[in-house]
Amino acid sequence: EVQLVQSGAEVKKPGESLKISCKGSGYKFHDYWIGWVRQLPGKGLEWMGNIFPGDSTLKYSPSFEGQVTFSADTSTSTAFLHWSSLRSSDSAIYYCARRRGAAADWFDPWGQGTLVTVSS
Amino acid sequence: SDELTQPPSVSVSPGQTANITCSGHALSGKYAYWYQQRSGQAPVLVIYKDKERPSGIPERFSGSSSGTTVTLTISGVQAEDEADYHCQSVDSTNAYYVFGTGTKVTVL
Question: Are B4 and B22 in contact (CB under 8 A)?
Answer without folding.
Answer: yes
